[in-house]
Write a structure and sequence with these properties.
alpha/beta; six-stranded mixed beta sheet; five-stranded parallel beta sheet; binds 2-acetamido-2-deoxy-beta-D-glucopyranose; golgi apparatus; Fucosyltransferase
Length: 487
């Protein structure tokens, strides 16, 4: 009896051991699958490829412009900050460390606000707006309890993969103003990676279709190029490319699905490597896979604009409304418009063999941009795009522009209240960012089914959804004790 129990215990221990070993192994392999992205195997190679990573957008400019930017930076450094200890203007405070601004009064049109990164102002009587940079928004470090007249403003131009918390309405409704890639946000920056329409229309890198044919025939290039080093992201794009590779050859230069080495000239980043060489490489191909790392409406990055600029047809996946931003009706292929990866491959082959049909897709480079929505947006745009932390000369950067937008809104609200027009209230909703739960491609190449419980991205998304609802509850009820905000 006793012996049997002992044996039973041993068996139980053994099963436990195996179970824990399995859990540990799952956990460790999880960690590694995640770290792959942060530590690409091929370092030298990745210094270059890194430029194509979603988190480090770098759009090269001409030397001249770079020099002008340097002059502007110098001038800015010489500009003495106004030291204000007791601001008289509404205070706009970046709660997340972002601009590094100690404190400065700035004019915005007819109005003025005091902008700062210093939390010591958070209890000041003129404290009005808390600004948050989406990627750094942390539910455990918030300016709480929230006073009824505290405005929260979100700035989030990055991929949903950086912070799934913001995909959920429960969190989005905490913000009164937003600036995101979504056109529904208050200060949309959907075209943040598009330098200008002239930049897009340039023919600097364009190759004729017969040149492209000869690259295929003589140099053995595939018709499609893929360059990605952030592997296995929420959009599951590598899975689709893998499927596509069953039907058509794809030259893959990045860490993900790598099957080709970069030309010598490009693979030595320190030996005179220039981004022009990379543009040059893409321009030799007829098609470029432009698949975002996550699926969300209006999430559009340089992955779309780059091939268009060099005269290569992009194969797009990311925003289902990307058509609204394309230069013409017939300038890109959209993954979601094809029944399967095989159908897409068949169509690519067809276009590849019909020079005039292929060239039709690049007509817009000569006939001009026919998309009036895009033209309008670019005409009205008051800011220039971020160029790896630099800004185009003569254009405002969108962060400062958004700060001013918020400042003007605050003054407007203060005025209305003082005129007795009642309390004006407004807050964001799901449409201001809200990105759907990441899915997986099925064996046909339809982005359609949910990952299993082990799927990292969808479980992250779910976890953040729960966090969002508990944050919403505790903020509304004014009892977020776990917040260590030092007010
Ligand atoms: C794009 O195509 C639609 C019909 O498919 C047409 O109504 C629209 O005018 C076209 N837009 C442009 C800019 O050519
Ligand atoms: C700002 O948003 C919060 C949270 O949704 C809301 O309670 C508050 O009334 C809003 N304030 C203004 C001035 O719109
Ligand atoms: C979300 O907010 C926008 C304004 O920013 C508004 O037009 C829209 O109706 C709202 N949607 C919902 C579902 O409340």
């Amino acid at each position: 009896m006793r012996l049997r129990r002992l044996r039973g215990q041993r068996l139980f221990k053994c099963i436990c051991c195996i179970f824990f070993a399995f859990m540990f192994w799952t956990f460790v392999s999880y960690l590694f699958s995640f770290n792959d992205e942060d530590f690409p195997e091929d370092v030298a190679y990745d210094i270059f490829i890194d430029e194509t990573k979603e988190d480090h957008v770098h759009i090269p400019l001409d030397q001249e412009i770079l020099e002008e930017l340097e002059r502007i930076k110098q001038k800015k450094n010489n500009y003495a900050d106004q030291v204000v200890d007791d601001p008289k203007d509404p205070i706009v405070l970046w709660w997340t460390e972002f601009t590094g601004e100690p404190g400065k009064t700035r004019r915005c049109g007819d109005q003025q606000c005091f902008f700062t990164n210093n939390r010591k102002y958070s209890s000041h009587k003129h404290m009005k707006v808390f600004m948050f940079y989406g990627t750094d928004f942390n539910d455990e470090d918030l300016p709480l309890p929230r006073s009824p007249d505290h405005i929260w403003a979100l700035f989030h131009e990055e991929s949903p993969k950086n912070n799934f918390l913001l995909c959920h309405e429960d969190v989005l409704t905490l913000f009164n103003y937003t600036s995101t890639f979504r056109r529904e946000s208050d200060f949309p920056i959907t075209t943040q990676h598009l330098i200008s329409l002239d930049w897009l229309l340039q023919k600097t890198f364009d190759k004729t279709v017969s040149q492209k044919n000869s690259y295929q025939e003589e140099d053995g290039l595939a018709s499609v190029i893929y360059v990605q080093s952030g592997c296995d992201p929420p959009s599951d794009r590598d899975e689709f490319v893998k499927l596509l590779m069953n039907y058509i050859s794809v030259d893959s230069y990045g860490t993900c699905l790598k099957n080709k080495k970069l030309p010598e000239k490009i693979s030595h980043p320190l030996g005179g490597m220039s981004h022009r060489d990379f543009y040059e490489l893409i321009s030799q191909y007829k098609f470029a896979l432009s698949m975002e790392n996550a699926v969300c409406e209006d999430y559009i990055t340089e992955k779309l604009w780059r091939p268009l600029m060099v005269g290569t047809v992009p194969i797009v996946f990311g925003s289902s409304r990307v058509k609204d931003f394309l230069p013409s009706n017939n300038s890109a292929l959209e993954v979601i418009n094809f029944r399967s990866a095989e159908h897409l491959a068949t169509y690519i082959n067809y276009l590849n063999s019909k020079d005039s049909l292929y060239d039709n897709m690049r007509d817009w480079k000569s006939s001009g941009i026919s998309n009036t929505y895009l033209k309008e947006i670019m005409e009205k745009r008051t800011w220039g795009p971020d160029n790896n932390g630099h800004w185009i000369p003569g254009q405002k950067n969108f962060i400062e522009d958004y700060e001013c937008y918020v400042c003007e809104q605050i003054h407007e609200t203060i005025k209305k209240v003082s005129l007795g027009e009642g309390q004006f209230t407004k807050w964001a909703n799901h449409s201001h960012y809200g990105c759907p739960k990441p899915l997986k491609f099925n064996s046909l190449g339809k982005y359609a089914h949910e990952g299993n419980w082990l799927d990292f991205w969808s479980s992250q998304w779910e976890r953040q959804r729960q966090k969002a609802s508990s944050l919403r509850r505790c903020v509304s009820e004014g009892r977020c004790d776990r917040n260590k905000a030092n007010l």
